[in-house]
């Protein structure tokens, strides 16, 4: 029974693919870069006795990619779907400063992929009366996110979509679970220099997934990492308008750090 991971060539998705393979699962990887997919697939097969398959697909292209994905997945009996793929703009910024391409990319990748991959995979799971869909949301779904307004909204979509689906799928013994990472050091969060890798508050993808893999299938909703669960609980004790205020302040700091990094790069 293979597992499938979207956005499997870097960060959290790549680590999920590696950890699931360690558990003996065959893995189907989907991402946009064939070179990186081959690298990850080879790494997994060299280190674990499992079979990998990969599909090259750019989720930012929207509707046109899903027929090809469906055809590739037809012969497979996916037992676990990790809807991980996601994008953010290069750094927190005001909505009207974002390019239209960047806005469409977030909508197509963060909303389109979780929706359509689930649509493709669940009919077989329902038929077989088993399966798990893990949708990766974000701490950004806790409140509106000034300077990451679209990104935060896409993650709120993931949350409500998953909770609704969970109810629908329960009678078929198919689980729809939500993973809520807080800050994880990956390519996506390169805009900030503050949290260093290895820090217990801001783990890198490897440490984060090594912890969170143990929660897979057990919790309908979790941050997957003890420290992130504490942050999530504390955050939700604060009134929303205060959370929005804090999110705005923090994103302003991140944006400034990004601009400072860019200036240093220009000088070098
Ligand atoms: N990092 C955090 O702090 C954090 C916090 C909360 C939630 N999350 C969520 O966790 C998930 C993973 O984030 P991450 O930090 O691991 O991101 P990441 O390191 O940037 O990795 C993203 C993965 O998605 C792939 N990808 C990006 N755009 C794609 C596209 N158009 N088509 C196909 N594949 C594409 C990337 O491929 P390439 O290798 O080609 O780039 C990469 O494999 C996302 O949903 C994110 O929103 C992250």
TrEMBL record:
SUPFAM superfamilies: NAD(P)-binding Rossmann-fold domains. One of its GO terms (cellular component) is mitochondrion. It holds the Pfam family adh_short. PROSITE patterns: ADH_SHORT. Its main location: mitochondrion. GO terms for molecular function: oxidoreductase activity. Coiled coil: none annotated. Keywords: Mitochondrion, NADP, Oxidoreductase. It is found in: Mitochondrion. PANTHER family: INACTIVE HYDROXYSTEROID DEHYDROGENASE-LIKE PROTEIN 1. Belongs to the short-chain dehydrogenases/reductases (SDR) family. 17-beta-HSD 3 subfamily. This is Uncharacterized protein. It comes from Chironomus riparius. The lineage of its organism: Eukaryota, Metazoa, Ecdysozoa, Arthropoda, Hexapoda.
